[in-house]
Amino acid sequence: GNPPGDALFFHFSGHGAHQHDHAAGHHEAMDDSIVPEDARQQGQVTENHVHELLLRPLPAGVRLTAIMDSCLPCAVMELPYICHPEQGWLEDDCPHHIEC
Q1: Annotated catalytic, 49?
Q2: Is 15 part of the annotated catalytic residue set?
Q3: Do residues 100 and 81 lie in contact, with contact meaning Cβ atoms separated by under 8 Å?
Q4: Residue 14, Cα to own-chain centre: how many angstroms?
């Protein structure tokens, strides 16, 4: 693991998409996702998966800087904040964020 004080960096430039979230309990739920180069063989990487792989395992005191450059304004990290280009950081009112 990473000790407190470590700084990590994650970058994705590529296509963003939406796919049905079958685990949400209703048919209209959608997951934001990123589409890696091998998506046809391995599938899209959903926001829930990104959260579980990158954010949930972060120990206290470790900082992650992530840049998500995709064609859709998708959240992908399942965080309760969004960065609005004109208003800065805003709390996202989506009630379905993952609890940490």
Answers
A1: no
A2: yes
A3: no
A4: 14
